[in-house]
């Protein structure tokens, strides 16, 4: 029995790309079903991989800026865009995209490949921002999308154009989150240290904490069982930014900050974006 558990754990750790990246091949909904105006966007990463995304223009003649969404590890943009689509009613454009291997994006998911996707998405979102209002430029990472975007941010060629970084229910080390998941199950606890041997942290965001100097908002759900709040707190404590905020949502679970307390955090977020320099 112990040997069987050990074998299953090894398989889990060695296939962590499937744990961190769980794409769905098809879209579940079309934004047009909700009478949303959007543009299908195709662009390429530096290695030529073709990526797909959606651009939603703000419902105003004078957009305040653009928010680029880095979604979580499962499904694709067709389920994740709902969490931030409300910003278009508040004067902000929204650009969301799929990493390689997800839905209409080509290739196979990997840390190295998705790092390239992140840099390409920054460029495409910046292009839209310049075309539509040239306002605030916000990078919004959710869960695994937080780890992906935060690692790439310091290497972005137009780093100075970033107005605000948001880490929502995020983590910064693939090894740490794998270790946490293993040790949370009593039968896997003995082999949990193998997470630091078999899981790669080559593109872990905690390696660049000292280079994150832009205004940064960290959001944690105190009842989040997917990415426990300690991981967000580590990001908040570790980054070098002198302008940073930690929102601890008492009843928050995973990526649901804007659905609590009568949606008051939506306005709080908008006020924060308004307050940071362009």
Question: What distinguishing features does this structure have?
Answer:
single chain; alpha/beta; about 280 residues; about 20% strand; globular; 8-stranded mixed sheet; two-stranded parallel sheet; disordered N terminus
Written overview of the protein:
This protein is α/β, with parallel strands linked by helices and 278 residues long. 32% of the residues lie in helices and 19% in strands. The protein has an eight-stranded mixed sheet with strand order 2-3-6-4-7-8-9-10. It has a two-stranded parallel ribbon with strand order 1-5. Strand 7 (136-142), helix 5 and strand 8 form a beta-alpha-beta unit. Helix 4 packs across helix 5. The longest helix is centred in the middle third of the chain and has 21 residues, at 111-131. The protein is globular, with a radius of gyration of 18 Å. It starts with a helix and ends with a helix. The relative contact order is 0.13. Mean pLDDT is 92; it is low at 3-8.
Task: List the SSEs and their pairings.
Elements: H1 2-14, H2 16-20, E1 22-23, E2 39-44, E3 50-56, E4 65-70, E5 74-75, H3 77-80, E6 92-98, H4 111-131, E7 136-142, H5 144-152, E8 164-168, H6 174-183, H7 195-198, E9 216-221, H8 229-238, E10 244-249, H9 264-275
Parallel strand pairs: 1-5, 4-6, 4-7, 7-8, 8-9, 9-10
Antiparallel strand pairs: 2-3, 3-6
Helix pairs in contact: 4-5
């Amino acid at each position: 029995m112990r040997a069987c558990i050990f074998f299953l754990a090894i398989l889990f750790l060695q296939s962590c790309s499937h744990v961190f990246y769980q794409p769905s091949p098809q879209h579940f909904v079309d934004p047009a079903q909700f009478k949303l105006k959007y543009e299908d966007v195709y662009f390429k990463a530096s290695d030529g991989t073709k990526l797909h995304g959606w651009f939603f223009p703000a419902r105003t003649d004078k957009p305040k800026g653009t928010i680029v969404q880095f979604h979580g590890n499962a499904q694709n943009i067709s389920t994740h865009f709902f969490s931030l689509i409300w910003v278009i009613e508040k004067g902000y454009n929204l650009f969301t995209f799929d990493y390689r291997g997800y839905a209409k994006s080509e290739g196979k998911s990997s840390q190295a490949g998705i790092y390239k996707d992140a840099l390409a998405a920054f460029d495409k979102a910046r292009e839209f921002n310049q075309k539509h209002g040239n306002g605030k430029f916000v990078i919004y990472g959710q869960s695994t999308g937080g780890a992906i975007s935060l690692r790439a941010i310091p290497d972005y060629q137009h780093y100075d154009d970033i107005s605000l970084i948001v880490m929502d229910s995020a983590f910064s080390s693939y090894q740490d989150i794998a270790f946490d998941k293993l040790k949370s199950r009593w039968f896997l606890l003995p082999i949990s240290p193998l997470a630091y041997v078999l899981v790669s942290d080559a593109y872990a965001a905690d390696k660049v904490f000292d280079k994150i100097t832009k205004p940064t908002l960290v959001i944690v759900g105190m009842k989040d069982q997917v990415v426990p709040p300690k991981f967000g707190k580590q990001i908040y404590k570790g980054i070098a930014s002198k302008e940073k905020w930690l929102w601890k949502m008492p009843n928050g679970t995973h990526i649901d900050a804007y659905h609590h307390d009568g949606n008051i955090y939506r306005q709080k977020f908008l006020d924060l974006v308004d307050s940071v320099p362009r």
